[in-house]
Amino acid sequence: MDVIELVRMCVRRWWFLTPALLIVGLFAWTASASVDPEYEVTGSTLLIGPSVVRREVKLDATAEVGAGDERLFVDRFDPVNPYLSFSGSLNITAGAAAVTLLGDEFAATLGAEGYDGAYDITLQGGSPLLTVETRSDDPESSKALAIRIFEELDAVLASQQSEVAVPGYLAITTDRLTISEPIERRAARTRVLVGATGVGAAAALGLTAFVDFLLLRSRRTEPLERSVQLA
Question: pTM (2 decimals)?
Fold first, then answer.
């Protein structure tokens, strides 16, 4: 059936197709309204290096005659701006932390603690900037989940560095930049509405075509009756 025939059929059987489409629309709206809304929270945090840099400074001390020269080395700590000293090592550390937070073990921990929903963690442009996105059918749960993930990130970084005895003044830390308020997302409802409407409309057209076929066939199979009046 080409487009022209389809249009002709729809016009010919409008009395059947119109109420069928109305029923489809009512069904699609009811189905979409039954879907729980989803709330999304987005937050970002930045991994930063230490605010000091350690250098070995050589101090020359003059010893007594005949004793020779004695060189002493001491550590000197100079302040630096950590926001001007990003390096690839921070990116690697951020990636390692993200892998831990996306693992099954942490997901099981969240479930045991009563958190629900879903979350994603991404590294922005190969930088140590981590973005966390949480989704849940409850706005407070979505935000609580995001905060919990940020707290776990700090704990993971502290644990990783303590295992190799990194001094506190040289530790990598985080700077939480933003965390949004829960935003309602209607994507799930829209998907259900569009899907139900498409399937229902296709079914209505198919049923209309079937009814049209039955009616046309019944007309073709009607017996030919003709009366002849003789003069």
Answer: 0.65
Domain of 150 in residue numbering reads as 38-51+88-185
pLDDT band for 67, please (50, 70, 90 cuts).
very low
pLDDT of residue 42: 95
Domain containing residue 181: CATH number: 3.30.70.1130
**Per the domain annotation, does 47 fall within a domain?**
yes
Domains of the chain: total: 1
- Give pLDDT tens digits for 137-178: 899 999 999 999 999 999 999 998 988 888 888 889 999 999
What is the amino acid identity at position 102?
L
